[in-house]
Amino acid sequence: MPADSIYQQIKRDAYAYGIGRTPLYHYSGPGYSVYAKLEYRNKFHSIKDRAAYFMIDSALRSGDLDKNKIIIEASSGNTGIAIASIARDLGYRAKIYVPNASSSETKSVLRNTGQDIVEVFDEASKRSSINIDSAVALLKEEMARNPGKYVNFDQYSNDTNTNAHFYTTAPEAIQAVPAGFTHVVVSIGTGGTLTGLAKYFKRYSPETKVIGVMPQPYHRIQGLKNLKVSRTPEILSKNMNLIDEWRDIDDASAEKQFKEMIPLGLFVGLSSAANFYSALQVAKENPGSRVLTVFPDSAEKYRENFISRGLVSAEEYDRYSSYLKSDPAECITLK
Q1: What is the pLDDT of residues 49-82, one digit of tens each?
Q2: Cβ atoms within 10 Å, residue 149
Q3: How many CA atoms lie less than 13 Å away from 301 in the CB half-sphere?
Q4: Which of 222-231, 299-308, 309-318 is predicted with the least confidence, judged by mean pLDDT?
Q5: Which backbone phi and psi does 106 adopt, to 5 degrees?
Q6: Backbone angle region of 77, left / alpha / beta, with phi > 0 → left and psi within -120 to 50 → alpha
Q7: Which has the least CB within 10 A, 21, 129, 179, 305?
Q8: What is the DSSP letter of 50?
Q9: What are the tens digits of pLDDT across the range 79-132?
Q10: What 3-state DSSP class applies to 120?
Q11: CA 312 to chain centre
């Protein structure tokens, strides 16, 4: 069966399972619009649900995954949660390597999946910054000791990660805004979202500019990657020609944007704030623009982290959490 037909089937399966078709938030500024997919509306509350489902379903269809093998993956949080949860629901085992510097709530959610969770301590963790490379290295050592026991999707090199967004995230955005977008602005973790959107728009809307956003070295924005201190994901390096421009963001800008989003009814993670900050900058620089971005997750898994960093008080966190139960009025919902 052609790859396109298989991916279309996986897309339908994902939708039936509860992943995808997330609302699109619309922020209207003076002479511009910013649109953001609310990815915390996915089944396991992050954008990584899409790639995790596509990778698991694809591996099942190809025969690479069966009940005799264990899924093994390194993740700073969201991909691990999605893989562990989907595998559990389908009756498969998973082993997830997670950096110690990931939030305590993230690690708690991972453990509650009932899967095998390995917490990795390294130099980055001592600085309270997040670097996935040590977790990947330990994972590879475990696979070498036990050949044939595991299936590793390697989200950083797996084309299915990119294709999850090519087949779902991008066309959903166009369905909601048929006029299309002048710019796509997305930060990088594995590079899956950025490359999937870039692949789609360069094929169907080549005039759309694709802008990648990178955090500062030794940043504290869970889920993001700085290419100067971390290995460049293969799916990004081989699709680098699809990216028109790169921009940087520092922790302080993301934290400030996070606070400014709360009165809008958006209680999000810092990667979402980084995306919104960057998208707003691009929109303001380009009158008449329609900018697409994504909000990868909400503040749901960062209570202790946000309180300790002084971003919100405990009382404020509990109060703002009510925002997660409903979408802002400025949302386009897909049927």
Answers
A1: 999 999 999 999 999 999 999 999 999 899 999 9
A2: 13
A3: 26
A4: 222-231
A5: -60, -45
A6: left
A7: 179
A8: H
A9: 999 999 999 999 999 999 999 888 899 999 999 999 999 999 876 555 556 778
A10: strand
A11: 23
Residue type, 108: S
CA triple 22-300-79, angle to 5 deg: 65
Q: Which pairs with CB-CB distance under 8 Å and at least 24 residues apart come from 142-145?
A: 142/72, 142/95, 143/72
49-151 is classed CATH 3.40.50.1100? yes
pLDDT of residue 134: 87
Residue 162 has pLDDT above 90, yes or no: yes
Residue in the block written with tokens 């699109």 = 24
Those residues whose C-beta lies under 8 Å from the C-beta of residue 156, and which sit 6 or more positions away, are 136, 190, 191, 231, 233, 234, 235
Beta bridge partners of 32: 29
d(CA 220, CA 218): 7
Strand ranges inside 216-321, DSSP E:
245-249, 290-295
The amino acid at 50: R
Cβ 331 vs Cβ 26: under 8 Å:
yes
Domain boundaries along the sequence of the chain: 3-44+158-332, 49-151
For helices 3-17 and 48-62, angle between their N-to-C axes, nearest 10 degrees: 120
Length reported for the chain: 335
In one letter, which amino acid is 6?
A: I
Helix (H) or strand (E) holding 258: helix 251-261
CATH of domain 3-44+158-332: 3.40.50.1100
CA distance 291 to 279: 6
Sheet holding 93-99, edge to edge: 116-120, 93-99, 70-74, 150-151
CB neighbour list of residue 282: distance below 8 Å, 6 or more residues apart: 183, 185, 211, 247, 289, 291
Cα–Cα distance for residue pair 120/261, rounded to 1 Å: 32
